[in-house]
Design the sequence.
């Protein structure tokens, strides 16, 4: 977990899968840290009147969990994010257990960049998040 890996340690199709239950505590800590007090996340009455019928976990929090799986389990901590794209394809409710599948889709040796992709599904199999992003790795220090 969170071990440094070099660009050369990675290859296309490297993949990891990890599951996590999204808790009220996760949402409360995220909301308190970011100030994202959108009523669909914090107000039962408001959220109950939306098409979702109940409160949603913040989407960017779920995206952050996806990138955490990437760095903690797949690519390590050396790469620097240069572009992140997330598609929120379904609702995430508190209590949902999500399975994050993250993989390396492309590796560009000339720029020391990897393109990673991800999908998160809830326990019912519904995809709730898709991602495509890039990480740039530093050149090795001269000896």
Sequence:
């Amino acid at each position: 977990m969170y071990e440094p890996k070099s660009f050369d340690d990675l290859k296309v199709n490297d993949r990891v899968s990890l599951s996590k239950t999204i808790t009220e505590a996760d949402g409360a800590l995220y909301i308190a840290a970011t100030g994202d007090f959108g009523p669909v996340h914090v107000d039962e009455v408001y959220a109950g009147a939306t098409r979702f019928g109940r409160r949603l976990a913040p989407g960017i929090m779920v995206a952050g969990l996806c990138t955490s799986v990437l760095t903690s389990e797949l690519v390590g901590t050396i790469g620097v994010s240069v572009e992140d794209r997330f598609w929120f394809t379904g609702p995430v409710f508190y209590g949902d257990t999500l399975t994050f599948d993250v993989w390396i889709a492309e590796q560009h040796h000339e720029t020391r960049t990897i393109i990673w992709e991800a999908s998160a599904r809830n326990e019912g199999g519904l995809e709730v998040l898709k991602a495509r992003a890039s990480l740039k790795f530093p050149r090795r220090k001269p000896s």
User: Anything to note?
Assistant: The chain has a mean pLDDT of 94. The longest strand covers residues 97-108. Strands lie at 15-21, 80-88, 97-108, 113-121, 127-136. The first helix runs from residue 24 to 34.
